[in-house]
Amino acid sequence: MLIKPIYEILPFTYMVIGAGSVALLKEPYAIIASLLVFFYGAHIWNQRSKNRRTDRKRKRISGILPESIYGYLPFIYIMSAGLIFRFLSRDSGVVIAICLFTYGTYILIRRISYRHHKIPSVQARAKFN
């Protein structure tokens, strides 16, 4: 079993290694392997995020997209930005990459902040009833 600091940073490590490899490597098979490593880190993060949610399921709003795709959206935006920046380095490609990266990071930060719900204690519920 891994110690907690290493365990917590592991998905981000996978994503950084995958994104860095996409930026540095030139062979197509290496880029595909890098994408797999990146999305494996995203998968681990999504699984942990789902497991750590404390809000009630009945209060969650269901959307149009399936949950499997919805969980990966910020990571898809961020990796798309990296791929556009890597392969379309013209002015418009850079602007599109910056917009995608910013929006993906925004969604990810919002989701991280939503995962810190606290279930009210029995004493706190008694005060409001």
What do these coordinates show?
- Helix content is 76%, strand content 0%.
- It has helices at residues 4-24, 28-52, 67-87, 91-114, 122-128.
- α1 (4-24) packs antiparallel against α2 (28-52).
- The longest helix is centred in the first third of the chain and has 25 residues, at 28-52.
- The chain starts with a helix and ends with a helix.
- The mean pLDDT is 84.
Brief synopsis:
The protein is an all-alpha fold and 129 residues long. The chain is built from five helices and no strands.
Secondary-structure blueprint of this entry?
Elements lengths: L3 H21 L3 H25 L14 H21 L3 H24 L7 H7 L1
Helix pairs in contact: 1-2, 2-3, 3-4
Averaging pLDDT over every residue, what do you get?
84
Helix content percent band: over 70%
SSE order, as H and E? HHHHH
Number of strands: 0
The gyration radius over C-alpha positions equals 18 Å
Largest sheet: none
- The separation of the N and C termini measures 44 Å
The quaternary organization reads as single chain
Structural class: mainly alpha
Regions with pLDDT < 50 over 5+ consecutive residues?
none
